[in-house]
Specification:
single chain; mainly alpha; 14 helices; about 75% helix; EmrE-like; EamA_dom
Length: about 300
Amino acid sequence: MTQKKAEILLAAVIAARATSLLFSKIAMNGMGIFNLLAARFLMAFVLLAVVFFKRLRHIKRHTLVRGATMGALFFLMLSTELTGLKSTPSSTVSLLENTAIILVPMAEAVLRHKLPKAVTAVSALVAIGGVALLTGQSGGFTPGMVLAVMAAVLYAAAIITTDRFSHEDDPLTLGIVQVGTLGLLALVSSFVFEAPHLPQSGTQWLMIAGLAVICTGFGFTLQPVAQSHTTAQRAGLFCALSPACATLLGAAVLREHISVMGMCGIALILLSLLVPQLWQLAEKKGITLLPRHAVPAVRRA
């Protein structure tokens, strides 16, 4: 798979997962957070285990450990996300959680002891500007907003961990183990903190089926596959697609109004994903932009 095809897949994965806030908001009417996560991820794992049974029969120990680590990180991220979603608008949660756009290149710079490339920094700034225009909010931080910021930190950690593991192991198997681990952790937490039960209405079953198949079976499972052919920095930038897709979905399904500022935000988000290609095209034509390595690598202490 080429990097371009991988990034198209990653865009589709992020777009599919963007629907999870809508599905979750509806499904949480009558279901606990951990109960919802357990039903969603265990249903998806059963479907994946049936389809990929032969692959899972020969799973190696290191693959199991890596997939479980990824699943634990995403479990913590989703737990904080859904807790914040109960008291905070989904657009605000989406905005704050996707500050991972900035956190990923910053963390990568620290881990690699060098500053991100100029093109990455420009892409991140354009993307975060688009997200701010799209879902800008006013007022002080609420507990739900603090949880959304915590989710962003955990999301950035999950993206970087997935980047490392997916380049060293079978990404599809990692994704399946990740889904199963998340479902198991959610089930245990549901028995400890809640009174677990099956969905009680047709609407809840429909929302959980959508979460299991679209957001989990496709979204979570194939993210390691897509990330195995691109970089953590680029994967972080694709987080910007989430609030854009969430806004468009809200307009289509819930008849929510998109302002002119929101339209400009969507345009900036799409532009941020094209910046590397436009940058490369400009350099091929001899147009000098900011140097790719304007700042030397940071030396180890």
